[in-house]
Design goal:
Helix content of chain A: 25-40%
Radius of gyration of chain A: 29 Å
Order of helices and strands of chain A: HHHEEEEEEEEEEHH
Shape of chain A: elongated
Number of domains of chain A: 2
Distance between the termini of chain B: 63 Å
Structural class of chain B: mainly alpha
Largest sheet of chain B: 2 strands, antiparallel
Low-confidence stretches of chain A: 1-20
Helix content of chain B: 55-70%
Bound molecules: protoporphyrin IX containing FE, copper (II) ion
CATH architecture of the largest domain in chain A: Sandwich
Number of strands of chain A: 10
CATH architecture of the largest domain in chain B: Up-down Bundle
Strand order of the largest sheet of chain B: 1-6
CATH class of the largest domain in chain B: Mainly Alpha
Strand content of chain B: under 5%
Strand order of the largest sheet of chain A: 3-2-1-5-8
CATH superfamily of the largest domain in chain B: Cytochrome c oxidase-like, subunit I domain
Number of strands of chain B: 6
CATH topology of the largest domain in chain A: Immunoglobulin-like
Largest interface: A-B, 94 and 122 residues
Number of domains of chain B: 4
Low-confidence stretches of chain B: 1-22, 572-592
Oligomer: heterodimer
Chain lengths: 276, 914
């Protein structure tokens, strides 16, 4: 058991450490990897250990004559353990196992503490980006039964006012259009019931609650058309509530954006400062 | 009825045979027995069978879900149909199957394990059962009212409001909500009962820490239930209020701008997280018992196992926000919750290791119960580990609302169910006296275990499927951690189809169990006290099935080991000095007069069902009338039943006489409001159903109050730490504990909304919403009135103890008058606010919280007044104050009344001054 612990904790040490410039996808992937690896390892070990011992210490004896279980034997001699006796008071004179129990407990505590600290550092990274992002495209997302409305905070450009006629892109007109490589900051709310806005591809997700705003962000690193799903039961159309998210090359995005009414270059300042 | 009733197979030399108990219980073959029984073993069997029925009900719904998911997109269900089925499946499995299944075992076993003859309040135990059954029936009825609840078992707001529930589902939704409320009534009564029993009725020499592990797990479960369900009750009451009086968006509680949606998640999960442990804890107890027996070894680290359980039980109340990581709660709070959540896996971890270490050096027999428990531990390990994933907030951000959550909680919950099934196999021979078929048991296990994993493991693979969607799409390509090596790449469909196949295998495996358990009843595999080797707890020391009175003699652990003392001797108090002296002499005669049957639990619960059904369709303008009209009936019932039971007196005549003008008064007010012929003609059928339900309900309550139902209090039992408190008093305390949470949740909601709205401008907002004038003096006056009435209750008790009939009756009557004045004053205030100023129930958050919170308090006052009417009638004919009568009843009522008083002392400043 102890050996396990050492292996596990060193695995932890070699795992990737949080970096602030990670996207949500990176953060999720690295944390998920650590958890899957550790979780599988621990799960397999513990289950094997249990089944192995249950098998190893199986009783060889057959059922007693005319009964449905073995004859009770006095085994005090074989092992130093206490056997249940009918009508006993179960406390007191308990023998064995306590120390071992605490060892495995300490080990788990150590692991769990490690996990807490590690995942906390990643949480901070995610939350920092979410809250202190200046060079981001800010978008207000409003859920409704059963779809998403977007408003580009800078210009007030809204779903319904724009269309998504872009060469080579097949997407609905109520899609969200964003540039690749930028941080997209979402302020999410709802107009009716509670929804949950999530883009699985970019690991962005947050509740859409009437009367409240919640934040999330993502940083798309590839172009294409992706889906924004609703992850909270919101009524009869819930199962089909999704919209498109279109990721364009920055230039294409600029072109598309400026072609819409009421937009101006100054809305796109965030793209200059950190364009690679 | 005078003969010794303790027939018994083996341990006792008394005559054997299926002799009937002295408490006039009909034989088991008679249907009537099962309707009137209050015996804990009978009730336990009823619970188990009923919960299995609900398992089948919920299971059929699960098949429908899995059929629908065979392919993406529309298949066998409509959108609304799917949402209903998902909701009802969740509710049924969590509330109506899993917990009651465990409580079937608990009912049967806890008294046996702790050495009690029955639960402390057997009649209330029967009430618990019937309320449970009928609450489930009401949920079933909701399907026939158009549509059941379509909101998911979490009932998130504001989707749970009339504004967003399709009109066809409004009636059914209300029924669903009321079904839950009835269920909570059942659970609360049950919790009070178990807590009282376990603290007060243990066999001599059995300390709290010596209680067998299954009973310990139940004790912790009922404590959690007591508090958690009170919070849910509060949430449901607020929700019902919204449904009836404030259904528009932007009004009431959960539709309000003041974070109504967030408020619901807080209230629900404050209940909901403890609830998931509530359903799991009894399974932990079963695991411990079964592993001990089939390993032939005492649980390793028993003490630490118990401490870990207690820790989890407490901690379960401070992790609820891990269900809300994506709501608007802030980072520091999230951090704390992350720590408590991941931390809660540690005590669980200790328990699992304790179970594993117990197997080491054991004599492990791989019998069916052990197999199920071993399987359950495997499932729990997987469920627990995947739960830790969810506790790491960053991962939860992505897992939330996906099949990862679905798979996680099915692993944990099914672990509980599987362990309980192991428990059923384990105790089946004890309960029936026959051994099940071992081979079929093993087949069941293999089919269930394989089926289950085939059902739920694929969900981890395609976890990106949004929860409660049946349109799924996408591909899955899992990678080996830390590498870019893809294991395979497939679409989602195949995995969902695997799950569907698994579902059918899992479901059908239970048919094997039903068959096995049924056929074995008629087999010749008769068993003695303990068919298993290495059993420890007391239930294995009596015959199978146990005798009607549980034990062949008074059980005692005084010598360090269970022994049965001769009842006659112990009752005389000669055997030990540990009996609590005085009452001991009465015990012998009590013993023979113990009652075991009553029709009223069934009757009362049935009226509760009728009332629930009625309220589901009761319109706002008719809402109070059934309740008002029932009050004169109640007064008359006291007169009639009282005269029948205590002999006719003038007071009884006066009660019946007073009912008439009272009814006339209410009818007059109704007339002014609706017009008598027209109003009644326009009332829908639910008005009449409610009227029948509440009237007959109050009637059954009075009848129950007058029924002579004697339950002997054990004279020789371990009662630490409540030696000085009688059963009823302890029960009252415990009940008040849950009531505190109820009010706490109401007040908490008020504070939440007020902070969200702006604490200091609360009343300005109210003025904008129509309030012109909110004087303090009615509240102040009411404070004085209530304080005075508390004082007169104390007087009543003093007079009763002194043996003064006049004093007792007068003091109680004065208290009643005080309460009446309180209500009158309140009525005048409400009429002014509501009608003259037009500040109505849905006039903004200040109005809703004011009316509902003080209204809840007023309802408590009314209940107190009804009880007082009963007490006065009883006192007049000699109860409480004359010789041999128990003055304590007044004291118990006084506890309640003082509590109502104290609540007001909180409400008055909150709603009048601040
Ligand atoms: C061992 C430690 C456990 C941890 C750390 C844990 C953690 C969590 C977390 C964080 C969630 C919220 C997921 C989300 O909605 O985003 C969750 C959901 C849930 N857990 Fe656990 N859990 C644990 C054990 C259990 C146990 C023992 C049970 C019940 C027997 C249980 C039943 C549930 C249920 C029913 C839900 C889903 C509720 C819903 O959204 O409908 N969990 N768990
Ligand atoms: Cu939880």
């Amino acid at each position: 058991m102890l050996g396990t612990g050492i292996t596990l904790s060193s695995a932890l040490r070699h795992a990737p450490v949080a970096q602030v410039d990670q996207t949500q996808v990176n953060v999720f992937d690295s944390l998920y990897d650590v958890f899957v690896a550790l979780g599988t390892l621990i799960g397999v070990l513990v289950i094997t250990y249990m089944v192995y011992n249950a098998y190893k210490y199986r009783s060889g004896g057959a059922d007693a004559e005319g009964r449905y279980d073995i004859e009770e034997e006095d085994l005090e001699g074989d092992y130093d353990v206490s056997r249940p006796q009918r009508g006993e008071i179960p406390t007191g004179k308990g023998k064995g196992g306590g120390k071992k129990l605490f060892m495995s407990f300490g080990l788990s505590a150590f692991l769990v503490l490690g996990l807490i600290i590690y995942s906390y550092s990643l949480l901070l990274a995610v939350e920092d980006t979410s809250q202190n992002q200046e060079d981001a495209l800010e978008i207000e997302v409003t859920g409704y039964q059963f779809g998403w409305d977007y408003e580009y905070t800078g210009s007030g450009l809204e779903s319904g006012d724009y269309d998504v006629n872009i060469d080579g892109v097949e997407a609905d007109d109520d899609a969200l259009v964003v540039p690749r490589g930028e941080v997209i900051q979402l302020n999410v709310t709802s107009r009716d019931v509670m929804h949950n806005y999530g883009i699985p591809e970019f690991r962005a997700k947050t509740d859409a609650m009437p009367g409240d705003y919640t934040q999330t962000w993502f940083q798309p690193e590839k172009t294409g058309v992706y889906r924004a799903n609703c992850y909270e039961l919101c009524g009869q159309g819930h199962s089909n509530m999704h919209g498109d998210v279109v990721v364009l090359e920055p230039d294409e995005f600029r072109q598309w954006y400026l072609a819409q009414d009421g937009t101006s270059e100054s809305d796109l300042e965030f793209m200059e400062s950190d364009s690679q | 009825m005078t003969e010794d009733v303790h027939t018994n197979g083996g341990t006792d030399s008394h005559e054997t045979g299926s002799q009937d108990d002295g408490g006039h219980l009909p034989p088991k073959s008679s249907v009537k027995r099962w309707l009137v029984t209050t015996n804990h073993k009978d009730v336990g069997i009823l619970y188990m069978i009923t919960s299995l029925f609900f398992l089948v009900f919920g299971g059929i719904l699960a098949f429908m879900i899995r059929m629908q998911l065979w392919q993406s997109g529309p298949f066998i269900l409509t959108d609304l149909g799917y949402n209903q089925i998902v909701t009802a499946h969740g509710l049924l499995m969590v509330f109506w199957f899993l917990s009651p299944f465990a409580f079937g075992l608990a009912n049967y076993l806890v008294p046996l394990q702790i050495g009690a003859d029955d639960l402390a309040f057997p009649r209330l135990n029967a009430v618990s059962y019937w309320l449970y059954l009928f609450s489930g029936v009401l949920l079933g009825i909701s399907f026939f009212q158009g549509s059941s609840l379509p909101t998911g078992w979490t009932l998130y707001a504001p989707l749970n409001l009339p504004a967003f529930i399709p009109p066809v589902a409004e009636l059914g939704s209300m029924s669903g909500i009321l079904a839950l409320a009835l269920f909570i009534a059942s659970v609360t009564i049950g919790s009070v009962n178990f807590i009282t029993t376990m603290y007060r009725m243990r066999a001599e020499g059995l300390r709290m820490r010596d209680i067998p592990l299954f009973s310990i797990s139940i004790l912790l479960t009922v404590w959690m239930m007591l508090f958690a369900f009170a919070a849910l009750l509060a949430a449901l009451m607020l929700l019902s209020f919204d449904h009836v009086f404030a259904g528009e968006v932007g009004t009431g509680y959960f539709g309000s701008e003041e974070g109504g949606s967030l408020l619901w998640t807080h209230l629900f999960w404050f209940f909901g997280h403890p609830e998931v442990y509530i359903v799991f804890f009894p399974a932990l107890g079963v695991m411990a018992e079964v592993v001990q027996t089939f390993s032939g070894r005492r649980l390793v680290g028993r003490k630490w196992f118990i401490i870990a359980m207690a820790l989890v039980a407490i901690q379960s109340f401070i992790v609820w926000m891990h269900h809300m990581f994506l709501t608007a709660i802030n980072l520091p709070i999230k951090t704390v919750i992350m720590v408590t959540t991941i931390g809660i896996s540690l005590p669980f971890d200790l328990m699992v290791f304790a179970l594993i270490y117990t197997m080491i050096k054991g004599q492990v027999r791989w019998k069916t119960p052990f197999l199920f428990v071993l399987g359950a531990i495997v499932l729990f390990i997987i469920g627990g580990i995947t739960g830790v994933f969810l506790g790491a907030i960053v991962l939860d951000y992505s897992f939330r609302g996906t099949y990862w959550v679905v798979a996680h909680f099915h692993y944990t919950m099914a672990s509980g169910a599987v362990a309980l099934v192991g428990g059923i196999y384990y105790w089946y021979p004890k309960i029936t006296g026959k051994m099940y078929n071992e081979f079929l048991g093993k087949v069941h296990f293999v089919a269930a275990f394989v089926g289950f994993n085939l059902l739920y493991f694929p969900m981890f693979v395609v976890w990106d499927t949004p929860r409660r969607w049946f349109h799924y799409s996408g591909t899955v390509a899992p990678e080996i951690p830390f590498t870019n090596i893809t294991l395979f790449e497939t679409g989602f469909t195949i995995w969902h189809q695997m799950a569907t196949v698994g579902a059918f295998l899992f479901g059908f495996s239970f048919l094997i169990m039903f068959y096995n358990l049924f056929v074995s009843l008629y087999s010749d595999r008769v068993v003695d006290e303990s068919p298993w080797a290495y059993t420890g707890s007391a239930e294995w020391a009596v015959s199978s099935p146990p005798p009607e009175g549980n034990f062949p003699g008074t059980p005692s652990f005084a010598t360090g080991k269970l022994s049965f003392l001769d009842r006659a001797e112990t009752d005389g108090g000669t055997e030990t000095a540990a009996t609590d002296g005085g009452v001991a002499h009465a015990a012998q005669s009590h013993e023979q007069h113990a009652d075991h049957t009553s029709w009223w639990p069934l009757g009362m619960s049935l009226t509760a069902l009728i009332l629930g059904l009625g309220i589901s369709g009761l319109e706002a303008s008719y809402f109070v009338w059934p309740f008002l009209f029932a009050i004169p009936a109640f007064v008359a019932f006291i007169g009639i039943f009282g005269a029948r039971s205590d002999g006719y007196t003038h007071l009884h005549g006066a009660f019946v006489g007073a009912a008439v003008p009272l009814l006339a008064l209410f009818a007059l007010v109704f007339h002014l409001h609706h017009g008598i012929p027209g109003g009644l003609a326009e009332a829908n059928q639910y008005f009449w159903i409610s009227l029948i339900g509440i009237t007959s309900g109050l009637g059954t309550l009075v009848a129950m109050g007058y029924e002579s139902f004697h339950v002997p209090t054990p004279t020789m039992s371990e009662q630490w730490p409540f030696e000085g408190v009688s059963n009823t008093k302890l029960g009252m305390w415990v009940f008040i504990g849950s009531d505190i949470i109820l009010f706490g949740a109401f007040i908490g909601s008020y504070i939440f909304m007020r902070i969200r709205a702006n604490w200091t401008q609360w009343w300005d907002i109210a003025h904008n919403n129509g309030l012109t004038h909110h004087p303090v003096w009615p509240g102040l006056l009411n404070t004085y009135l209530l304080l005075a009435s508390s004082f007169t209750v104390v007087l009543a008790l003093a007079y009763a103890k002194r043996g003064s009939r006049r004093g007792t009756v007068t003091a109680l009557s004065v208290t009643f008058v005080g309460a009446t004045l309180f209500l009158l004053n309140k009525g005048i205030e409400w009429v002014d606010l509501y009608i003259h100023q037009g500040w109505q129930f849905d006039s903004g958050p200040a109005a809703s919280t004011f009316y509902l919170t003080t209204g809840l308090h007023a309802a408590h006052v009314v209940v107190g007044m009804l009880i007082m009417l009963f007490l006065v009638a009883r006192a007049y004919t000699g109860a409480y104050w004359s010789d041999g009568e128990d003055a304590q009843t007044i004291e118990y009522f006084g506890l309640y009344w003082h509590f109502v008083d104290i609540v007001w002392l909180f409400l008055f400043p909150l709603f009048y001054i601040l």
